[in-house]
Amino acid sequence: MARSTIGIIVNGVTGRMGYRQHLVRSLLAIRDSGGLPLSGGDRLVPEPILVGRSEAKLTEIANRHGLTEWTTDLSAALARPDAAIYFDAQITSHREGAIRAAIDAGKHIYTEKPVAEGLSGAVDLARAADAAGVKHGVVQDKLFLPGLRKLDRLVKSGFFGRILSVRGEFGYWVFEGDWQPAQRPSWNYRAADGGGIVVDMFPHWHYVLEQIFGPVRAVTARVSTHIPRRWDESGQPYEATADDAAYGVFELEGGVIAQINSSWAVRVFRDELVEFQVDGTEGSAVAGLRRCRVQHRAATPKPVWNPDLPATEDFRSQWQEVPDNEEFDNGFKAQWELFLRHVVEDHPYTWDLWAGARGVQLAELGLRSAREGRRLVVPELVA
Ligand SMILES: NC(=O)c1ccc[n+]([C@@H]2O[C@H](COP(=O)([O-])OP(=O)(O)OC[C@H]3O[C@@H](n4cnc5c(N)ncnc54)[C@H](O)[C@@H]3O)[C@@H](O)[C@H]2O)c1
């Protein structure tokens, strides 16, 4: 068994996603397990090259994990012949330019979503990457979560019969930052910095809907900035200029209606921070990040509407848990492994910059729908 290494530039490694999910839980976890097993029996070991703005933070992360390669100079990292992949987890507004530079440097591209702030930028990146002949991928982590994997399994098994509707509920209370610090970075709430829940979450909803249920053909959205004033990381008040809640209706090919609420101004009375209820003629399911419960047509109770009497049925107890039947790895790591196999062994990989561009397109159309107060058809994107 031979071991080979692959240099990966990790830009934005000091951020929440860059550090925890991508460096620690994915790349370092693959290294710690002895490398990614390849089809011929060899092992591929990722060699992260940390890139960020703060020398102090980079040194601290490198020391903590016994890493030696870091720089605040992206061009220097991109000039390294041993760096095969450029990965981007920076704030959204800095992504497009950095990916463009990485494509020009001939690197394969893997990136957090959204791939760009606008559709034209996202399409330009996809075209440029294709033209340069580099491989490309976009994080679509929700697809790899146990709850959604089980939901996907149900769809593929034909459990639902004809699927009628999908209702998604995502969100939690993000503290304003005055009397308790906010648990999300302040740039998320400033439009000029690439913030906003539509830009953040519609790309996720796009791939979840497209991959599990079918392509999105039309969107109608209403967005709001419910909390107009927040306090940043240093305790300074600022105006929240980006949307913090979005109420969207997505019409899918084949007639399924999906309706998803996304909000950072909602308190959780659910079992998980995101849940999707799917209703079909033969059965229904409720899937979250980890759990998935079903109710079959033959086991469906017959509630009778009578507000004069208290409810006597425990509706939640009438659902059945879908078993895991397999071990689910961290979703980010699972997708990294597929991307690495795509790069070194040419394994098929569908979650590319075009898929990312379709997510950005849905966000852009969602915001336009809200601005113009109308339903918008989603035009097909052609490579
Ligand atoms: N896949 C997911 O589930 C998921 C979840 C959260 C965020 N994200 C995406 O990941 C990206 C990073 O989000 P995050 O929550 O980790 O953000 P974060 O604020 O924690 O990290 C941002 C990173 O960008 C860097 N950066 C570069 N220029 C910056 C600037 N001018 N101001 C501030 N930071 C700057 C920071 O140093 C840091 O490393 C975003 O594009 C976001 O959409 C994805």
Short description:
This protein is an alpha/beta fold and 383 residues long. It has 9 helices and 18 strands.
Describe the structure.
This protein is of the alpha/beta class and 383 residues long. The protein has 2 domains: 3-141 and 331-352, 3-Layer(aba) Sandwich (Rossmann fold), CATH 3.40.50.720; 143-328 and 361-376, 2-Layer Sandwich (Dihydrodipicolinate Reductase, domain 2). It has helices at residues 16-32, 55-64, 74-78, 95-104, 119-132, 146-157, 197-212, 331-345, 353-372; strands at 3-11, 36-37, 43-51, 70-71, 83-88, 108-111, 136-138, 163-171, 216-224, 229-231, 237-239, 245-252, 257-263, 274-280, 283-287, 292-296, 320-321, 376-377. A 9-stranded mixed sheet has the order 17-16-15-14-8-13-12-9-18. Strands 1, 2, 3, 4, 5, 6 and 7 form a 7-stranded mixed sheet that branches. The protein has a two-stranded antiparallel sheet with strand order 10-11. Helix 5 links the parallel strand 6 and strand 7 (136-138). The two termini are 40 Å apart. The structure holds nicotinamide-adenine-dinucleotide (NAD). Nicotinamide-adenine-dinucleotide (NAD) is lined by residues 12, 14-18, 52-53, 89-92, 94, 112-113, 139, 141, 185, 187, 200.
